[in-house]
Amino acid sequence: MKPEFSRRQPVNETRCERCSLHARCLPLGLDLKALESFDAIIERPRPLKRGEALVRQGDHFESLYVVRSGSLKQSVAQEGQRDQVTHFYLPGELVGLDGIGDTACYGSVVALESAFVCELPFSRLEDLAERLPELRGQLYRCMSRELRNDQRMMCLLSGRTADQRLASFVLGLSERFRARGCSPYCYHLSMSRSDIGSYLGLALETVSRVLGRFQDQKLVSVEGRELTIHEHAALVALAEEGVGRHSGI
Amino acid sequence: MKPEFSRRQPVNETRCERCSLHARCLPLGLDLKALESFDAIIERPRPLKRGEALVRQGDHFESLYVVRSGSLKQSVAQEGQRDQVTHFYLPGELVGLDGIGDTACYGSVVALESAFVCELPFSRLEDLAERLPELRGQLYRCMSRELRNDQRMMCLLSGRTADQRLASFVLGLSERFRARGCSPYCYHLSMSRSDIGSYLGLALETVSRVLGRFQDQKLVSVEGRELTIHEHAALVALAEEGVGRHSGI
DNA sequence: CGTTTTGCTTGATTCATGTCAAAAAATCGC
DNA sequence: GCGATTTTTTGACATGAATCAAGCAAAACG
Fold first, then answer.
1. Which one of A31, A37, B56, B121 has the fewest CB atoms closer than 10 angstroms to its CB?
2. What integer best gives the mean pLDDT of chain B?
3. Strand C neighbors by CB, 7 A
4. What gap in Å lies between CA B115 and CA B127, rounded to an integer?
5. How would DSSP label each residue in chain B?
6. What is the DSSP letter of A62?
7. Is B149 near chain A, with CB under 8 Å?
8. 8 Å CB contact between B2 and B188
9. Is there a contact between B98 and A148 (Cβ–Cβ < 8 Å)?
């Protein structure tokens, strides 16, 4: 069993200054004084059990959240269609940016495993941003980065094959784990095949089959939800390959 | 021939106060004094010819742009793959939000027809936002709205059939035209079938065929790039239908 | 004003991926 | 620890949409 985030983030480490996510979190770049003001507006870590909802679609928008440990998924339910998973969130990532300026939350956010989140009431964050240009900049940058991620996702969904989508997905997670100081080559998938399928626009059976094929080709090994990357370069090559759908090049 | 935006927006109307897009544009909600400060940082309308690039992928990010007339597309070129269209921009819409905090522009933005854009140098906009809370809020709201749009797009791309994608596309444009005071039932497509296909993740032949089928079913008529919606309700029903891909409901 | 280019439509065929079904494995609850 | 539930794998089959290949229409160009 791999160590999980929850084990690495003792609950009592409640101050931003001491938080090990400091370097990847919203208050990045704030000086000590600013960080203390920031720290002051945070609602202290809130524990979530697997399957528990942090926000429900349609809830009144009030806060952003930073994942402190564990992982979550966002999913949106539309008009009698199957729920669609739109995001996975790892420690340090910001939840709720898509609710700003809207009355209701766009989707539901649910814990995929035991998790802690810090709550940032948006109105207080705005007040603080008025005084802290750095924080303002960070907020813009976070939103803009998310826009770029979403666009990358749109490209993935509209132009690439199932194999390429899964290669990108596996590599994307790998990169995110690496950035958090976890092994990029061997990690735990906290989401089900069905979640992955929904996120990537594939049937869950296809996810299972492709992962199996990757394993046969010795690119990765998958045992349940433990994934090990063996041929990083080959996955990159596959993900970037010119021959997607709609006659590549 | 329908009136086009360019005919409705005389070039010499250069002040924000007199701009007819006022109500849909970034400075929405600013008081007169604030509006004047905002007006002062705008680089005056810049004309673009069909096919001309406003920004090229990889350009250094410096400014946001507001479309004043005409329309544009954003497309990103990846690793030897076919270009992928990621956005269409209509008058009043904000171009470039995805470049904030990044050194380079994420994609190229090209005029689909003759167009004018107002340039907003981002550093000056940031300075101004420091003093104008309303403007700050507007910026957050614009970015957040775009996040929601991108997510809607992701849902469209990963869960819906070709017919549903095109129905949504046609209705989406209709809504955007309506919001701009143009006819929502009869409008001009400034983009090619190939652009639409790229945007929706479909082959251009499929776009052509589905549009043809819609015409046979008397939902719309399409003559070249002139589109008329006959059965709005039926299109809505189709777009929202539970039976997408991945066994609806 | 004819020629070339570009964009659009249409048909035939193929293929990747979805759907349905059932078994196997893992996880959960008591 | 054992039956019940959920998740995952695997197989057989169906099908929507891509691809390939013309042909046609409408601009753009000399």
1. A31
2. 90
3. A 50, 161-163, 201-203, 205-206, 223-225, 245; B 192-194, 204-205, 207-209, 211-212, 222, 224-225, 245-248
4. 28
5. ----HHHHS-TT--SGGG-TTGGGSTTTT--HHHHHHHHHHPEEEEEE-TT-EEE-TTPBP-EEEEEEES-EEEEE--TTSPPEEEEEE-TT-EE-GGGTTSSB-SSEEEESSSEEEEEEEHHHHHHHHHH-HHHHHHHHHHHHHHHHHHHHHHHHHHH--HHHHHHHHHHHHHHHHHHTTS-SSEEE--S-HHHHHHHHT--HHHHHHHHHHHHHTTSEEEETTEEEES-HHHHHHHHH-S--SSS--
6. -
7. no
8. yes
9. yes
Residue nearest to nucleotide C19 (CA to C1'): B247
CA distance B204 to B247: 26
Length of chain A: 249
Residue A40 has which token pair?
Answer: 């002051």
Strand pairing class (B108-111; B53-55): antiparallel
Residue predicted with more confidence, A188 or B27? A188
Contacts of B118 (CB under 8 A, 6+ apart): B42, B43, B44, B45, B46, B65, B66, B68
User: How far from chain centre, in Å, is Cα B236?
Assistant: 20
Q: What is the pLDDT along chain A (249 residues), one digit of tens a residue?
A: 344 444 444 444 578 888 888 888 888 888 888 898 999 999 878 899 999 999 999 999 999 999 999 999 999 998 767 899 999 999 999 999 999 989 899 999 999 999 999 999 999 999 999 899 989 999 999 999 999 999 999 999 999 999 999 999 999 999 999 999 999 999 999 999 999 999 999 999 999 999 999 999 999 999 999 999 999 999 999 999 877 788 655
Provide the β-strand partners of residue A75. Answer: A85, A108
Residue in chain A nearest B206 by alpha carbon: A246
In this predicted structure, what is the pLDDT of residue A29?
83
Q: What predicted TM-score, i.e. pTM, was given to this entire model?
A: 0.91
Counted residue by residue, chain B has a size of 249
Query: In Å, what is the separation between the CA of B74 and the C1' of C2?
Result: 37
d(CA B234, CA B240): 10
Q: B64 versus A19: which is more confidently predicted?
A: B64
Tokens 């929850």 — which residue?
A6
For residue B79, is pLDDT > 80?
Answer: no
**Could you tell me the strand order of the sheet in which B94-95 lies?**
B43-48, B115-121, B63-69, B94-95
Amino acid found at B90: L
Rounded to whole angstroms, the Cα distance separating B82 from B191 reads 17
Residue B1 confidence (pLDDT):
41
Question: What pLDDT score does B15 carry?
Answer: 83
**What's the one-letter identity of residue A48?**
L
Mapped onto helix, strand or coil, the DSSP state of residue A158 is: helix
